[in-house]
Amino acid sequence: MKNLLSAADLNREAAIEILDIAEEMAGVNHRDIKKLPTLRGKTVVNLFFEDSTRTRISFELAEKRLSADVINFTAKGSSVSKGESLKDTAQTLEAMGADAVVIRHSASGAAYKLAHSGWINGSIINAGDGTHEHPTQALLDAFTMRKRIHGDSSLGKDLDGVNVAIVGDILHSRVARSNLILLNTLGAQVHFIAPPTLLPANLSRLSAELHYSLDDAIESENLDVVMMLRIQTERMNASYFPSEREYSRIWGFNAQRLAKLKSSAIVMHPGPMNRGLEIDAISADSPQSTVLEQVTNGVSVRMAVLYALLSGERNTNAN
């Protein structure tokens, strides 16, 4: 595999392989010296046309822990702000000898365009393209679920039979799309819970069970995972729900709903969180919350993706 553009690029075996490599990388991240020489001599460019904190820093840390040379490129303050096209930017990076480009862009399909245009020969990793996909987020979410469910015996395991509820702004969420694809690949049952206005139009093509009531789903579906999504007001050009107060009352996750979950269930959020809107502070900070674990696991998973695409060798010397 040269590129990671979509969660659909991964079959079950490939997904489990990356999750297993991430387990090894997690061991590296707990060392006093958190470095592997795996990508020494490789140049990785982080090409971010959208603002990001968790994803950009996570990729940068992963690259540095694998000893790659890292170039951080942001649209603000670059030639892009002067009108330079994606093509010209890509060809500039190619001339600089980039071995891989991690791209985040507001346009759906930007990563695919970069990978198949011939402008650049290095590997392309999609770090989020518009409302389309965010495959490494889905991988780190699956890694977090697997760790919580299977514990130390998670190597080689999938998520067969796990009930996952994804709640909120599914219409605008690339995280929801990538998670749906990857979780189906790993054997999980996915439930989408949202107001009708925040569900995509092609419902018949979705391999997910649909619910319009969070309370009903909690009571009837024996959920193992509840993943809350951020309300993406920056992508909304109309009113999708009556008010924030009304949304929080019907679809927000709170202490009362947390109490109804089984004790082994986990609560997830890809961040950044709108506390008090899609999730309250008690739930976000509870022992059942994996919000900070997801951030930590993101480094290990992105190390695994970079390793899989760029190293060509399975032996990490991680033990």
Automatic annotation (TrEMBL):
Gene Ontology cellular component list: cytosol
Domain Aspartate/ornithine carbamoyltransferase carbamoyl-P binding: 2-146
Positions of L-aspartate binding: 82, 174, 230
Keywords: Pyrimidine biosynthesis, Transferase
Binding site for carbamoyl phosphate: 54-55, 104, 134, 137, 271-272
Protein origin, superkingdom: Bacteria
UniProt-listed Enzyme Commission number(s): 2.1.3.2
One Gene Ontology MF term: amino acid binding
Catalytic activity: carbamoyl phosphate + L-aspartate = N-carbamoyl-L-aspartate + phosphate + H(+)
HAMAP family named among the record's database cross-references: Asp_carb_tr
Biological role: Catalyzes the condensation of carbamoyl phosphate and aspartate to form carbamoyl aspartate and inorganic phosphate, the committed step in the de novo pyrimidine nucleotide biosynthesis pathway.
UniProt cross-references to NCBIfam families, sorted A to Z: asp_carb_tr, PRK00856.1
Name by which UniProt lists this protein: Aspartate carbamoyltransferase
Species in which this protein is naturally found: Rhodoluna lacicola
Upper lineage: Bacteria, Bacillati, Actinomycetota, Actinomycetes, Micrococcales
The encoding gene: pyrB
